[in-house]
């Protein structure tokens, strides 16, 4: 989401007290909109909508972020930054200068298995229309600081096995090689520094030191959920495992072992930030 000065966009995007302040340049394009309010809504509101539609017109699909006004929205956002729910991060792992704020909460699900730590969380991805909800999820993997093994340690991600438990009670099981086409090789050196080598079909072969491997994906439409009544989605969740090879896939030093992905929910808490 790119922040805009209002003159960068178009005077047509300003109607009375409504301003487009950010735009997602992906497809479909979406805008973050601030409505400074009127007599009926003196506290204002923050919502997301499609930029090609005027957000003040009746019938336009919009997803309200905050019911309690702009000040409440910004205050809660700052509180979440201060408490570490949202943290600074490298937005694109292959671009160290792409620093920003990660809106995937850091501490929803944390599991450590055989010295490998996996953190997972999900966020609702509002989309145009009134169908099932779609969630994005973020996975962060590293060698755990609590691992007390001495000397050099290495292991490589081989494959994944996921269970998507949907709101209507159905379960979708997904298995595949690596994660988003990558099979990172994690390492710890004698000086306790850690990192990973970006291997696999989609890997770039680069080595990243003192960096957490992270990736994002999407749940797809969640059966039994509906974007017009997000609070009724309370039971959808995800869990799974990764398979790891000690040493590396090419030079194994032991049998495969499983690493848990702790269960994390697919739901929305309002206000939505």
From TrEMBL:
Cross-referenced InterPro entries, in alphabetical order? ApaG_domain, ApaG_sf
Q: Which domain of life is it from?
A: Eukaryota
Ranges for the ApaG domain?
110-273
Q: Which Pfam families match?
A: DUF525 (PF04379)
By its UniProt entry, which PANTHER family does this protein fall under?
F-BOX PROTEIN SKIP16
- Protein name as annotated: ApaG domain-containing protein
**Upper taxonomic classification of the species?**
Eukaryota, Sar, Stramenopiles, Ochrophyta, Bacillariophyta
